[in-house]
Amino acid sequence: MAGPLLRSIWSTTRKSLSSTPTPSVHSAALKTYVYVRAFSAAPALASAADLASPGGALDPGRLRNVAVIAHVDHGKTTLMDRLLRQCGADIPHERALDNISLERERGITIASKVTSITWKENELNMVDTPGHADFGGEVERVVGMVEGAILVVDAGEGPLAQTKFVLAKALKYGLRPILLLNKVDRPAVSEERCDEVESLVFDLFANLGATEEQLDFPVLYASAKEGWASSTFTKNPPDDAKNMSELLDAIIRHVRPPTASLDAPFQMMVGIRCEVYIPM
């Protein structure tokens, strides 16, 4: 009975491309949750039939649920812009997922945002999370609902206080993060500096009690501002490689699909955020 309902919900949410926040619903057997979906890479999306299993339900093996975590201002939201554009979304301005006026005014992410992109017949549910310590509770809620994480670290600054906090939460929930060293295009960032930062991040993993599998994390190098990621260090990749393909491929390769029972009864987990305003 849940199959037609899920397909109906799925079809409805895909049609929403405006900046008005709209609910996004996925099957709870697939760790379902409701969050704000501000933009979707609809022009590149495959049809529901293309992503469906032979029984007509969405094939969980083609899903990836991924959180993007980092210290504040290390490039998460800019990275999300580039991933959306890579997969065909028409977004109106930079840092498009920061759609709350206070976020745009201060240049920080306050509330998590979820969006979906399709890459090589796989559906990627990506969650942009806050990086500021005051909103750390958002991160913990998100990493409990995904199977993978991209840990973004500024290659010049290295891991900072909130890097430790968000990584601890990801490791606690058994995630195996992909390390993305961002802003490698900056003049002060060298290959030796990237090696140093990678070692610092490894030590941070070890100090936080990471398992052997978690310690064997993939490493990529990127300039979210310029819109590219690479599996090897470079400051100027070839023109045909100046894109996010290698990061998207790494997500498909290293993040496990959600565990799902398509024969189980329909369930849905709903998250509600309450905001209280106190007049001064």
TrEMBL record:
One cellular component term from this protein's GO annotations in UniProt: cytosol
SUPFAM superfamilies for this protein: P-loop containing nucleoside triphosphate hydrolases
PROSITE patterns (alphabetical): G_TR_1, G_TR_2
CDD domains: TypA_BipA
Protein name according to UniProt: Elongation factor family protein
Boundaries of every Tr-type G domain copy: 61-259
InterPro entries: BipA_GTP-bd_dom, G_TR_CS, P-loop_NTPase, Small_GTP-bd, T_Tr_GTP-bd_dom
UniProt KW keywords: Elongation factor, Protein biosynthesis
Domain of life: Eukaryota
A Gene Ontology molecular function term of the record: translation elongation factor activity
